[in-house]
Amino acid sequence: MVFNVITPSQKNRLTKSRIKTLLIVFFDSKGLIHREFVPAATTVNAEYYEGVLKRLLLRICRIRPQYRNERWNLPHENARPHTAIRVTQFLARHQVTVLDHPPYSLDLAPADFFLFPPPPSKGVLKGQRFSDITQIQQRVTTVLRAIPKEAFADSFQQLYTRCQKCIVANGEYFEVQ
Predict the structure, then answer these.
(1) Which of 12, 14, 25, 71 could form a disulfide with 35 if both were Cys (CB 3.0 to 4.6 A apart)?
(2) TM segments (predicted)?
(3) String of b and e for 40-73 (b: at least 16 CB within 10 Å)?
(4) Run of H or E including 28
(5) Cα of 135 vs its chain's centroid, Å
(6) pLDDT for 41-80, tens place per residue?
(7) Which range is least confidently modeled, 71-75, 86-90, 135-139?
(8) Which residues pair with 25 in a beta bridge?
(9) Model pLDDT for residues 92-107, shown as the tens digit of each residue
């Protein structure tokens, strides 16, 4: 996720800010599992992402111990770090089944249609101005923590429904109602 920061001197202009932050977030039907903001000037490559996954696994052991000895599924977008050999090998070693994601399908990515929907409906972050990255991170963290547990479960039901529509449409584009 990328968020723009508008500094006070730029508030009246309609130009995009050059200050950005990236959020990596994992959740299941019970709620938020792990989130971390990528440090400024850091490239998310396979090595970095493998570190994120290691931290995710440690977090899962703490907050979802029932997953520790079970195989579990990871819906994964097809960004290069996600599909890198070292990442796929890491996930295989830890018995994590990756659910592949079709390219350019925001309608099938829960992070895109549920957590941070595309414009014009950016939800609770729409129209807000932030003076620095820390402000963005604090606000996003507050927003994520405020999501009811039932909404997380509902997002996976929505994903199932959307996947069924995709199957019926033979993988072709369709309008989501």
Answers:
(1) 25
(2) none
(3) eeeeeebeebbebbeebbeebeeeeeeeeeeeee
(4) strand 19-28
(5) 19
(6) 999 999 999 999 999 999 999 999 988 777 788 888 778 9
(7) 71-75
(8) 35
(9) 999 999 887 766 676 7
